[in-house]
């Protein structure tokens, strides 16, 4: 694929058994705004984002990742992508057509190499959003998503071949090889990262805050709520962004971040960072060490949605 057809990350959709508890967390403690709800499905927006919603929650018997949604510039690009994926042997879940969620639009769904449901859409009506004010400690937008894969190099190659993601940086361990690939679809250092793990699962969702002060104030609010903090505060080397990681009520890892690097795509060359050097995980040295306990939490549960499309 020579022409990049994806523009940005739109939203991530989660299914959970304890829907009310999950909704209370995201629409309360975490700082998102519920914009619509119907029969066990809720749509949550970030006040600083033009996206109609950045998280969808669905009540289900089993916890799973329902889908990850990306934007395209126009319906013609959606059609082009669908044709290219079909020609490349990718399994489509639906054909391009009307999107029946807040904001409407035109899109389709398909499975990635690991069986996750991916949605691409265009012509979604922009939500009326606003500037986040100083000391207002709520997310501005969805920053990125990180996925666990049992074969990160195959997953990386699939996203490069079919969706024109490009490699920004890699984290590695000398005795194990590549541990994480940071992938981009714009000058943002990464919209997605692929982490090595024993099974397919969601590693974490990251939400951008207005600045360092808002990031710390928001983190304090989440800590006071009783939610479990697993790693942070710190500043990563790859992406140069701040981090603070928590667990949501169903054990999904969620992150507050700021200042993710914007790079010059024409001149950028990927780095390989050695994870045995603590400064490559946290430049500041202020976080608790990345250890087996933190890594285990981020492996998450086996995703029950692999090659099973969500019902809505």
From TrEMBL:
Its cofactor is Fe(2+). CDD domains: BphC5-RrK37_N_like. It comes from the Bacteria. InterPro entries: Glyas_Bleomycin-R_OHBP_Dase, Glyas_Fos-R_dOase_dom, MMCE/EMCE_epimerase, VOC_core, Xdiol_ring_cleave_dOase_1/2. Keywords: Aromatic hydrocarbons catabolism, Dioxygenase, Iron, Metal-binding, Oxidoreductase. Pfam families: Glyoxalase. Residues 8-123, 141-259 form the VOC domain. Belongs to the extradiol ring-cleavage dioxygenase family. This is Catechol 2,3-dioxygenase-like lactoylglutathione lyase family enzyme. It comes from Streptomyces africanus. The lineage of its organism: Bacteria, Bacillati, Actinomycetota, Actinomycetes, Kitasatosporales.
